[in-house]
Specification:
Keywords: Membrane, Transmembrane, Transmembrane helix. The chain has 278 residues and is α/β, with parallel strands linked by helices. The protein has two domains: 32 residues; 235 residues, Rossmann fold. It is built from ten helices and eight strands. Strand 1 and strand 2 form a beta hairpin. Helix 4 crosses helix 5. It is globular, with a radius of gyration of 22 Å. About 9% of the residues have low confidence.
Length: 278
């Protein structure tokens, strides 16, 4: 019997050792590969580029950031004014931003800046949180100073991951209003909820902590969330909304999920009503 107990304990230690090793390898994989779990760069076809060239009121944009990375996108101008108000748009983690041009008729009276993140579309480089923030500041500084843009009427708009970039920009520059579609309090909190057995706080480098900035932002906010969002559960959007210091309105779109929200007419009705305030 003692030999059996000894053998059993040895086997248990071996099993525990294997499990600990497997867990450690999983954590290492999550740490090393986290950018690939957060960012899903999307390409753009030559056919799509050619198609956009035939769009009216769309200017192709090529920029080089202060650290030498080439960014690419478009400036939509649906304004008839000499100096048009500007919306700077930041897309989701799996979004190539020319998709928004499919809704170009929704932006009458505005210019909309659509620049793909590093590594997305024709933009070069690799995306990460800090560089997305710095690129957002650079885009604001460049385009708010253009002769055909009213620098006193610039709004930030973000969807999903891009809400963190839009929130950062609003905290750092003189933005007049913010539209957030499917926002979150922080990527860390969303990830921790989905991975309860993982020490996310220790591993995660791309934290996108919008909640920490919201209480310092006093400009108007329109927050749009999908009732059935499984990617960013509704309570994460509500948590950010509650922290926002400025005038704010939240609309929860019924019977929609994370990837269908932008196709709902109620979503666009709320956005247009918000834009008409400016």
């Amino acid at each position: 019997m003692p030999d059996l107990m000894k053998q059993t304990m040895t086997n248990l230690k071996g099993i525990v050792g294997v499990l600990l090793l497997a867990y450690s390898l999983i954590l290492l994989g999550l740490y090393v590969g986290q950018e690939k779990l957060i960012f899903f760069p999307q390409s753009i076809s030559k056919q799509r580029i050619t198609q956009i060239k035939h769009y009216q009121n769309v200017e192709e944009i090529n920029l080089t950031t202060p650290d030498g990375v080439k960014l690419h996108g478009w400036l939509l101008d649906e304004s008839e004014q000499k100096k048009s108000p500007l919306i700077i748009y930041f897309g989701g983690n799996g979004e190539e931003v020319s998709e928004l041009l499919n809704h170009k008729d929704k932006f009458a009276g505005w210019s909309v800046l659509l620049i793909n993140y590093r590594g997305y579309g024709l933009s070069k480089g690799q995306p990460n949180e800090d560089e997305l923030y710095q690129d957002a500041l650079y885009l604001y500084d460049v385009f708010s100073s253009r002769s055909d843009i009213d620098g006193n009427e610039v709004l930030a708009c973000g969807r999903s991951l891009g809400t963190g970039v839009a929130t950062y920009l609003a905290a750092e520059r003189d933005i007049q209003g913010v539209v957030l579609v499917s926002p979150y309090d922080s990527v860390k909190k969303v990830a921790q909820e989905k991975l309860p057995l993982v020490p996310v706080d220790l591993l995660l480098q791309q934290k996108f902590n919008s909640e920490s900035r919201a209480a310092k932002i006093n400009v108007p906010l329109l927050c749009l969330a999908a009732e059935e969002d499984k990617v960013i559960p509704l309570h994460h959007s509500q948590a950010l909304f509650e922290q926002w210091a400025g005038p704010k309105k939240m609309e929860i779109i019924k019977a929609e999920g994370h990837n269908t929200l932008m196709n709902n007419q109620e979503t666009w009705h709320n956005i247009n009503r918000f834009l008409n305030q400016f």
